[in-house]
Amino acid sequence: MMGPKRVAEDEPEINRNKLLRLEDKPIAISGKYLEQSFRKEFSQSWSQSEPLRGSDFQLRSDPFQVASLQGFLEEDEVGCDVTRGLEREFAEMDWKRKQMDLYEFYQTLDLCSVTKKFLSGFYNNLKENVLPLMQELTGIRLTHVSASCSMYNAGDYLLVHDDLLTDRRIAFVFYLSPWEAHREWSEKHGGALELFKADENILPVFPVTDCIYPKNNQLVFFKVCERSFHQVGEVTTFEYPRLTINGWFHGPIDDETAPHTSIIVDTHYFGPEPEGMHLSEWINNVYLIDEVKHNVQKKVEMFSEVSLEEFLITDIFDVMSVTLQTSPDLTWIIKGPAHLRKYDILDFSTIKSGPLSDLYKLFTSRDMFRLLYEYTELDLAGSKSKHPKCAIELQRWQKGCYTIIGDPSSYSDCTLDVLLYLNAQENVGVVTYLVPDGEQQPSSNSEDPDEDDPMLLTVYPNDNVLNVVYRAEGTTKFTKYVSKNMYLEQEQQNDGGHPYTYILSCSYRE
Question: Which of 54, 220, 351, 483 has the fewest C-beta atoms under 10 angstroms from its C-beta?
């Protein structure tokens, strides 16, 4: 397990005697935030949802109420004795890797049971002093606090969410970055708290509205509500970890913290196009032989999936790939909402003819429905078929793209997924399928060998491979976040480098 990284040459020698003396001194809020003038001005602005800025603090009202307080704890700004003491104890904590569709980072258990002097002192200060201050500044009734330590190394992230759960009323993040060379972060380091606007349907929209970067001894807090969408941007520096103590102040539930349902426009399904396609002109003829079709059907029956290499005729596939890489007039639309997905989709309505129009026609044609019927025996064609339908997207993936599991209602029906990669690049667009109701993290290297692994299947990007996956009712999937630190060979090419992977993603239902 990777611990907090230290860069010795950038750190001044720690005065151990000073740290020992400090252990007898309680961890305390900086006096500037206890002054009556500050508390009165801040609470008035908060109650009226107005922004406020001072030399050491800022209260944002857009896209939701977020406050950042610099120098929150009393400590020597040069020696950083308190934050260095906390950081030292971070290295002694037990860390658990948190890894799922939504996040990758390290976290400890709740600090309520920690006996280490600095961390227990910090937690006691939260309970005894910060909680009543939060209550006064926000006017929100609070009853207790929960807190843990988090560590984000290079490549770690936490995607868009709202924190709206049970009795959480105020979320907080306290930043530790006491290294002399790295007390304040910038855009090139990543790790920012990124804030999102919500639209009229209370769904988060791109782009990011505002960013708050880590800074040593900084406290950030915000009111948890139906519009408090935020994320932790990927840490891109390899030199230092992003260290925080974070959690929530809890209190009685009101209308704003009660569960809510956002309106999400479902995927658009439609019937097969009436125009026929001569499949032999497009598809590798080996996959049109009756015996091969029968073998494909048997494999789908046994494993619920099959991968068909060199599916399209090579010349056809190459033309489509080149068209995607070189056409300057294609219309791409970012696909959200941000708490469920981020990638671009091609607006097929703007393409009247050409290779990509043909690709669309091929996979929505009645002939493709019939071929998939022969591959799977699903009622997509034939005498038993009633209302077969499909949905289709041509997706463009690059660094920073993702999908997460999302609303379980979207997996209420059985679906046949068909995926075809173009300009495939390693680890870009990796799709993971999970068993129904699987709640454990999809990790193939679980510390408990007896722990059930909910991961059913992983589809890796390979050019011109048709991936056919039967997704039973309730089975979920997500496409792994693409790291900004990932090395993409095609992106590094001096001439004609191309950072995108394309996925033709189709879903068929009986």
Answer: 54
Q: Cα–chain-centroid distance for residue 171?
A: 19
Count other C-beta atoms under 10 Å from residue 452's C-beta. Answer: 11
Q: In the chain, what is the straight-line distance between the N-terminal and C-terminal CA atoms, in Å? A: 47
CA distance 433 to 476: 6
How much is the pTM?
0.86
Angle at CA 334, nearest 5°, toward 333 and 335? 110
Task: Write out pLDDT tens, residues 337-362.
Answer: 999 999 999 999 998 899 999 999 99
DSSP state at residue 126: I
399 close to 476: Cβ distance less than 8 angstroms = no
pLDDT digits (tens, 9 = 90+) for 19-61: 444 455 679 999 999 999 999 999 999 999 999 999 999 999 9
Estimate to the nearest angstrom the gap between the alpha carbon of 380 and the chain centroid: 34
Rounded to whole angstroms, the Cα distance separating 501 from 132 reads 51
Residue among 478, 505, 510, 506 at smallest CA distance from 414: 510
Cα 38 from chain centroid (whole Å): 36
Kindly state the DSSP code that residue 495 receives in the 8-state scheme.
Answer: T
- Closest to 151 in 3D by CA, of 241, 282, 58, 227: 241
